[in-house]
Design a protein that fits this description.
Protein Yjbj, Chain: A; 65 residues; mainly alpha; two-stranded antiparallel ribbon; 3 helices
Length: 65
Amino acid sequence: MSNQLKLKGNWNELKGKIKAKYGELTEDDLRYSEGQEDQLIGKLQQKTGAAKEELKEMIFEEENK
């Protein structure tokens, strides 16, 4: 089973949806670089208190098929 993550759609659109749900997030909080998914999820967890799996499900789709 692959552990790679792929963004669900366009990152700019996803950022807008995440900011709408978690208004306290800044552009710096939502800075994303490919290969740094764990850092992004960790930062979002700290800021929002949301569960890791909830955030991963919202942002990424697992490539394990």
